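## retry 2 of 3
previous attempt timed out at serialization; input unchanged, resubmitting
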Amino acid sequence: MRHVIALDVGGTGMKAALVGAGGELLHRARRATGRERGPDAVVDGILDFAAELRAYGTEHLGAPAAAAGVAVPGIVDEDLGVASYSANLGWRDVPLRELLADRLGGVPVALGHDVRTGGLAEGRIGAGQGTDRFLFVALGTGIAGAIGIAGRVEAGAHGFAGEIGHVVVRPDGAACPCGQRGCLERYASAAAVSEAWASVTGNPEADAADCAKAVEAEDPRAREVWQHAVDALADGLVTALTLLDPRILIIGGGLAEAGETLFTPLREAVRSRVTFQKLPTIVPAALGDTAGCLGAGLLAWDLLDTTNGSEATR
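## retry succeeded, writing output
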């Protein structure tokens, strides 16, 4: 059966799949990233994992994978196929596309940014399916976004498009590791909510999920922390809506797991801030932790379509 390899590389773990032409997951696997052993070991682990997936496809599906797609965190040069920088994984300027192509017998390899790749899947086959313009925002340890236009995701001129977490929403506010002050992710990420709730409760183990449960239990301290985050998030999102005018706004990541505890006040906060802008539909992401793998599979199939189309016109 014709299939591609899809790899979603995270800070602590890797998710992988063999994906059929219809987007079906034919085989799934996970393993640790092994970042504690250093950046070279992480790269070796990715290459070994991909080779194992290729061997599995050959044995169980009757043929090796036709292509591969890989989603990685940090700064990614998708055109050159280089993982330029990742603070979590400790690498710089890794020619990952070339290394993978060599390890996989010369098949085409697509390299993508993890959030943009997950956003591609959400926009094309997930919560935004059938929508021509969408904005996907992932609320995790940080905040990042993916700008969807007609079935593809815009990377920007330098691969930095969608970094909504570094939109300044509180001028002269909390310092951000990026060098600015008052960035959105310092107030509305899951990490920021966890930090704020831990401070209020005096419990260093308390996190954003605990805060959400306390909100549901009508704890006034939790409500204050939560609303502070929702207000900051709404401010950042309205800036994005003003610039991008998406038809649908898809919210994913750990904080979105709070469901309507997040979405009910967020929709109201965004609605109250909109003046001339068109209010988009605000929905939760649909694909969960499979989004990255599915998106990597889409990148691989898109690459095959492009390659085959180029060959057909020669």
